[in-house]
Structures are given as structure tokens and as C-alpha cells.
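Obj.: predict assembly geometry.
Materials: sequence records (below).
Method: joint structure prediction, all chains together.
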Amino acid sequence: QKEVEQDPGPLSVPEGAIVSLNCTYSNSAFQYFMWYRQYSRKGPELLMYTYSSGNKEDGRFTAQVDKSSKYISLFIRDSQPSDSATYLCAMREDTGRRALTFGSGTRLQVQP
Amino acid sequence: DTEVTQTPKHLVMGMTNKKSLKCEQHMGHRAMYWYKQKAKKPPELMFVYSYEKLSINESVPSRFSPECPNSSLLNLHLHALQPEDSALYLCASSQDGTYGYTFGSGTRLTVV
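Observations (raw C-alpha cells):
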């Protein structure tokens, strides 16, 4: 079993839809949770960063972390064609192994 | 300056060549990373430097040799690579590993 599981998609939605992206994980030591967006042939770009449990909102993006269920989500409101990309969840322990563990990424297509 | 700059953007090398990838950041970040990413896969950690010292080596073959000359620079020296080493090589940096990583755009390496 992988430490971080993420549905690879592709996920296709119409413009303006609410998108929900999710990851589950098995390592209870993970404390830092991030979402990255990666366009084709580019490096990942940090979208959201959360420490421990809770919600965080930034514009059209909302990140949720439920540590009791080992489940994290990213919601995109009013999705745009420019949101079409691969979304990677990533997480890290507080102490111990100080490096990110990535999910496999979900490819999102927003149709105009 | 909030960028990680990687050079070159593209590199084609023969299996007997020696080449180097370069990475530079001026954000005062004290942790720097090399990742390897194959098509449609998440980034895989190769090396971590923390305060200019190698802290993680993910059992990477010795044909990849990292170097951190100072807190702003990270190099990856390549020698006698194999065609299966063709990939996108990403450099990243972070404050001290506790915040989100900033990635460069990567070097697309092709080994022929």
C-alpha cells in the first residue's frame, strides 16, 4: 500500500463547476499538508499549505485536512479552463523524515 | 526574488558524457532538494541538503552526484547516465523544510 493515495483521473468538468480533489494517507506522523498544481512540462507550483487539521481558504481554493480520517481535500470553486493541470497532494512529518511525500497526482480538465 | 532558477532548461547527453545541472535561489532558504519526475508520475526525491549539508540520499546511483557550494546554489553532476535516466529533474527549496517548497521549472534531460 502506498503511503499517499490519490485518484489519477482524468477528471473532466464544465467551466464554472466546483471541483473536489482528494488524497488519503496512512502515515499518522504527517503534519504538513500541501497542494501543488503542475502544468504540462513545468515544475509544481504551491497552491495551499496547511499545518495539522482544519480548513484554509485562498480565493477560489479551499483546503481541508481531517487527520482523524487521514483524508485531505482541495476544492476549486468557479473552475476555469486555466485550472486544467495535474494537482498533486504532498505531505510531510513534523520531525523525523523532513521531506515531502507526494500523491500520484490527479489530472483535471475544465471544459469551456 | 521568489524563484528557483534551473539551468539548462533542456539537455541532451550521450551515455559517456559528463554534464551538470544547476539550481539557484535567493530567498534565504536553507533546505534544497533534487527531485526526478518521469512522465505522468509524481516527483521522486533524490537528495536533500539542509544548511549546505547532505541530509538525505535516497539510494541514488553514484552516476548522480550532488553538490551544494553555498546556501544559494545546488548542482547535480551527471556521469555515464543510462537512457532510463531521461526525465524532468526538479530543484526545490524551502525555509527549513517546515513550509511549502518552491520548485524550479526543471531541466528536461534526454540520455541518448
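Conclusions so far: The two ends of chain B are 36 Å apart (CA to CA).
To do: check interface contacts against the pulldown list.
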